[in-house]
Amino acid sequence: QVQLVESGGGLVQPGGSLRLSCAASGFTFSSYWMNWVRQAPGKGLEWVSAINSGGGSTYYADSVKGRFTLSRNDARNTVYLQMNNLKHDDASVYYCNAFERARGLHYWGLGTQVTVAS
Question: What is the pLDDT, as a whole number, of residue 54?
Answer without folding.
Answer: 83
